[in-house]
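Here is one chain, start to finish.
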Amino acid sequence: MKAFKRIASALGVLFLSVAFAALVTYLTTSEEDRPDIVELTESFDADGGQERAIDWDSLPSEVVAWIEVPGTSIDEPIVQATLDAPNAYLYTDALGQGAYGTPFIDCECALDSPFVMVYGHHMSDGTVFADFAKFADRDYAKEHEVIYVYTRSGNERHELEVKAVDVVNANRETLRTSFGTDEERVAYLNGSVAKSDLVLGGDALIGEALWAFATCSYQTSNSRTVVYASAPQSTS
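Its structure:
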């Protein structure tokens, strides 16, 4: 059951550590340093408000991607977890700005995997991945259905479209992150998306790659919201 016990365990720790992380970050980040966090992210915007440009040279090498969801507070670096330390980034801030942790790719996935699971804190101040919990509302999800992922490799911007949103009880629901064959992966993920609490756009079948963004939510004492997204299907 190398399944979504990982989301239960990883995000269970996320849920318990949110208040601690917020407190430690507040205590360890000085008033002078806090504006630098904003300046760091704002400095990535390209001139003239055109397509955003990430200055990868200014970021630690651990940052492999950056996620932006227009109209939300989600604007975060993404790092890659490793098998020897799968939950290290629950507490490690790749930018060195406090104890918020860093959104991270599951250690069994990678940027070029056909399925990419990304975990992020739901901070009480509404930062990091907190706004993903709001995607359980259909209107909110439709208003924010475009997700941009910028990757260091190739310096590319990937436009994703929200396909489905699932609120799971981590005490009894599991989600796999690795598969024996492509056919097994497609069948499993198509089933997971089709059975989600919210399916957008009618046909939400999985194409070549699927992303999932997971964070704690508060429908139950151990709920997680998982937002599934993939590249928009061509209309031609």
